[in-house]
Amino acid sequence: MIIVYGMESCPDCRKVKQVIAADGRYDYRDIGVDVHNLRDFLQLRDHNPVFAAVKAAGSVGIPCFLMEDGSVSLKLPACKSTEATQVKTKNSTAACSLNGQGC
């Protein structure tokens, strides 16, 4: 199962959540609703080099995809659904800026 970390106030996360809603391969975890989800995401973000550019840009790094093999992606993984592969985030490098300029 692919874990997706996101937040309802992030437009990119809302788009991804809609696309994956009916796909049982994904487990969407809102970091703004449950402190345990936030803790798990921050643990991942603080220790994974995938987030280096995101953090340097002052961004959060959501939506974030934690793959079954432990790898992390900031882009929706390719899957069989053509709708899912067409989802494009506004700026997948910036991924929701802390200063309000991302998303």
Describe the protein's architecture and organization.
By secondary structure, the chain is of the alpha+beta class. It has a single domain, classed as Glutaredoxin (3-Layer(aba) Sandwich), CATH 3.40.30. Helices cover 32% and strands 15% of the residues. It has four helices and four strands. It has helices spanning 11-20, 35-47, 52-56, 82-86, and strands at residues 2-6, 26-30, 64-66, 72-73. The protein has a four-stranded mixed beta sheet with strand order 2-1-3-4, sandwiched between helices. Strand 3 (64-66) and strand 4 form a beta hairpin. The longest helix is centred in the middle third of the chain and has 13 residues, at 35-47. The radius of gyration is 13 Å and the shape is globular. The termini are far apart. Mean pLDDT is 84; it is low at 80-86.
Mean pLDDT: 84
- Report how far the terminal alpha carbons are from each other: 26 Å
> Helix and strand string, N-terminal first?
EHEHHEEH
Rough shape? globular
Helix/strand/pairing category: alpha+beta
Strand content: 5-15%
Q: Give me the side-by-side strand order of the main sheet.
A: 2-1-3-4
Residue runs with pLDDT of under 50 for 5 or more positions: 80-86
Name of the CATH architecture = 3-Layer(aba) Sandwich
- Percent range for helical residues? 25-40%
Please summarize what this structure is:
This protein has 103 residues and is an alpha+beta fold.
Strand and helix map with partners:
Blueprint lengths: L1 E5 L4 H10 L5 E5 L4 H13 L4 H5 L7 E3 L5 E2 L8 H5 L17
Parallel strand pairs: 1-2
Antiparallel strand pairs: 1-3, 3-4
